[in-house]
């Protein structure tokens, strides 16, 4: 899958691909005492990686909606490994590969957050709400975390695969701004030091002028 989106999410999806995220079946294997083995989203079957992220009725419905919106079928796979492999092997343009990866990350992360929200806060969400989260989250990743990708919210909601543009000048500008923000402490410090030097020179020159006049 393409290197887009937050590192934390990419790392999570990599662990998910290897079956190493803390779903109920994995926790039980590790000897953790769990009150119920049922899936937290549907309560119909036991929770393992493939059920939670692929076969659960809620996940399945979300993948259907995501696939329709993206224009790339990810809703007919038998396992989460198969979903990730399909995205990884997608033979589209570089930009379309990035968008497809980003939306896959967003769908997976939304399912995981929804599952955890239900466990810890008992807040249920409608499937429409989950789809909105997939769109908004991926939109934010595109606009605020990619170096040179940008899209408007209206176009993103309508056609994510077509609407994203790359802009070299915009990308360079954003990188410079980010570098300045990232090094703001150093920048402030350097700026302060330059000010001190300039002030010293002015004071020295003033003193010299006064001395010469005398
Ligand atoms: Zn389920």
UniProtKB/TrEMBL annotation:
Phosphoprotein: present as a keyword of the record? no
Q: Which residues cross the membrane?
A: 190-212
Q: Which UniProt keywords apply?
A: Membrane, Transmembrane, Transmembrane helix
Keyword Transcription belongs to the record? no
Q: Which Pfam families does the entry link to?
A: zf-RVT
Domain named Reverse transcriptase zinc-binding: residues: 5-63
Fetch the InterPro entries from UniProt.
RVT-Znf (IPR026960)
What the entry lists under PANTHER family is as follows: OS12G0587133 PROTEIN (PTHR33116:SF78), REVERSE TRANSCRIPTASE ZINC-BINDING DOMAIN-CONTAINING PROTEIN-RELATED-RELATED (PTHR33116)
Q: What is the official name of this protein in its record?
A: Reverse transcriptase zinc-binding domain-containing protein
Q: What organism is listed for this UniProt entry? A: Tagetes erecta
């Amino acid at each position: 899958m393409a290197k887009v989106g937050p590192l934390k999410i990419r790392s999570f999806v990599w662990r998910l691909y290897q079956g190493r995220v803390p779903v109920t079946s994995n926790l039980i294997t590790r000897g953790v005492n769990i009150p119920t083995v049922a899936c937290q989203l549907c309560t119909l079957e036991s929770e393992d990686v493939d059920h939670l992220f692929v076969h659960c009725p809620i996940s399945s419905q979300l993948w259907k909606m995501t696939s329709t919106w993206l224009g790339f079928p990810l809703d007919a796979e038998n396992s989460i490994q198969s979903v990730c492999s399909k995205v990884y092997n997608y033979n589209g343009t570089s930009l379309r590969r990035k968008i497809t990866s980003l939306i896959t990350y967003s769908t997976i992360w939304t399912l995981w957050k929804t599952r955890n929200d239900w466990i810890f806060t008992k807040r249920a969400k409608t499937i429409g709400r989950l789809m909105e989260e997939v769109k908004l989250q991926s939109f934010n990743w595109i606009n605020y975390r990619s170096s040179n990708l940008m899209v408007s919210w209206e176009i993103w909601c309508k056609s994510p695969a077509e609407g994203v543009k790359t802009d070299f000048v915009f990308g360079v500008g954003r990188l410079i701004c980010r570098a300045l923000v990232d090094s703001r402490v150093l920048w402030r410090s350097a700026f302060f030091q330059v000010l001190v030097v300039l002030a010293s020179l002015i004071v020295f020159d003033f003193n010299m002028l006064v001395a010469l006049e005398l």
